[in-house]
Amino acid sequence: MIFPSAIDNDDQSLIVPLPSPIDPEKLPQHIAIIMDGNGRWANAQQLPRTMGHRAGVDALKRTLRLCSDWNIKVLTVYAFSTENWSRPKEEVNFLMTLFQRVLKKEIEALNLKKVRINFLGNLDQLPQRLRDLINESIELTSSNSGIQFNVCTNYGGRNELVLAAQKLAQRALDGELDPSLIDDNVFARELFTSRYVDPDLLIRTSGERRISNFLLWQLAYAEIHVTDTLWPDFDSISLTNALLDYQSRRRRFGGVDSIVNEKL
Ligand code: IPE
Ligand code: IPE
Ligand code: MG
Fold first, then answer.
1. Is 101 left (phi over 0), alpha (psi -120 to 50) or beta?
2. What pLDDT, on a 0 to 100 scale, did the predictor assign at position 260?
3. Nearest to 169, CA basis, from 157, 156, 192, 186
4. Each residue's pLDDT tens digit, 62-113
5. Ligand 1 close to Cβ of residue 35 (< 6 A)
6. Which of 63, 78, 81 has the most ligand 2 atoms within 8 A of CB, as the residue to mutate?
7. Would 47 disulfide with which of 41, 51, 64, 87, CB 3.0-4.6 Å?
8. Given this model, what pLDDT does residue 259 score?
9. Interior CA angle at 207 toward 201 and 212, to 5°?
10. Is 95 helix (H, G, I), strand (E, B) or coil?
11. For the chain, what is the mean pLDDT?
């Protein structure tokens, strides 16, 4: 077992080795994370909620780095939901500014690490400057060969399904599509995630046992790992535990018993 101090080092030029109990042959291809608990983390330390969001950015940087080093193909994180607009205006503004600042500051390093970034959600409603940065980052990293990193921003699973239904209905109306030919694959091609395999593993931090409108279609057969750890405290041990939990599962996909990932 690798010791945590060796895993959580800051030297980006080093590749963090996969901890030995994790089987490299049975890694999930796609991990999705509901990064929850920033506010509670801050409250517990009598700090304003905004400090929790700042600390959450560090946890995300750590997690992306580990997923990249451990050869996970796709990481999709929930950063801001369509329901999060209902938070106090100050918090929403803080988050939008934080996303902008972090993206600007980190994009070169992500590009050097060969990360390919994408943003999933209804991006039209985001502030123009953030949208510009998002478009530049997608463009800059589009031909990178490393981990696919998806940030769900103003994302809602229901909204995504409604948009897909609208697009299919329009194509049918235009005479391009026979409605009787709409099947799972045709439908999935209209989703924000059309280019990625479905998540194999969903991690939710802070102990809540709900999906909160995240990837409603794509999580159909994901294994779910809930941890009480608050997102800012999520580290290499937390990720190791999630992966070991995943590797202990028997995925059946509605069929009879099979070992994890046999289908992949
Ligand atoms: C998750 O942490 C971050 C966002 C939803 C933007 P929260 O802000 O939801 O933290 P809690 O759940 O209130 O502790
Ligand atoms: C889910 O967390 C959304 C994100 C992590 C961005 P919330 O804190 O918004 O979810 P609820 O309100 O607990 O369901
Ligand atoms: Mg929350």
1. alpha
2. 62
3. 186
4. 999 999 999 999 999 999 999 999 999 999 999 999 999 999 999 999 999 9
5. yes
6. 81
7. 51
8. 60
9. 65
10. helix
11. 95
